[in-house]
Amino acid sequence: MNKNIENMLEELKEKYPEHWGDPIKGLEVNFYDATNSEYGIDDDFAEELFYNLWINYKGSAVGIDREDLRQNYFNIDTDTYIELEDLVELTKIMTIVAKHLSKINFKAHLQ
């Protein structure tokens, strides 16, 4: 069960309904676990094995990776320049994401 991811998406859809799922005009969020399963695509996605997510907001992309799968260390990365107006919104989006990620009881995954 992926209740924290589901609650996160519900809150994001409520706050950013315009062009939901469109990474160029709106907001799209993609989640992957340590087995490389994608939320919403693969039935075996497990939020407690969360590995990374990509937030795509109006053409700007930000990745959040769980860098050490034995501990809760995260890396935030972008490979695009972000306009200040979009940075303000991305910060709000990342706050919602972090709030829900903090509720997950992460498990270590050693391959």
Task: Please name the defining characteristics of this protein.
single chain; 111 residues; 28% helix; 2 helices
- Structure class: alpha+beta
Order of strands, main sheet, comes to: 1-2-3-4
Overall pLDDT, averaged?
Answer: 92
Report how far apart the termini are.
Answer: 22 Å
Largest sheet: 4 strands, antiparallel
- Which percent bin holds the helix content? 25-40%
Shape: globular
**DSSP strand tally:** 4
Low-confidence stretches: none
How many H/I helices? 2
The percentage of residues in β strands lies in 25-35%
Spell out the helices and strands N to C: HEEEEH
Number of domains: 1
**CA-atom Rg in angstroms:** 14 Å
Describe the structure.
With 111 residues, this protein is an alpha+beta fold. It has one domain (3-101). Helices cover 28% and strands 26% of the residues. It is built from 2 helices and 4 strands. The chain has helices at residues 3-15, 84-101; strands spanning 27-33, 50-57, 60-68, 73-77. Strands 1-2-3-4 form a 4-stranded antiparallel sheet, covered by helices on one side. A hairpin with a 2-residue loop joins strand 2 (50-57) and strand 3 (60-68). Helix 1 (3-15) packs antiparallel against helix 2 (84-101). The longest helix is centred in the last third of the chain and has 18 residues, at 84-101. It starts with a helix and ends in a 10-residue tail after the last helix.
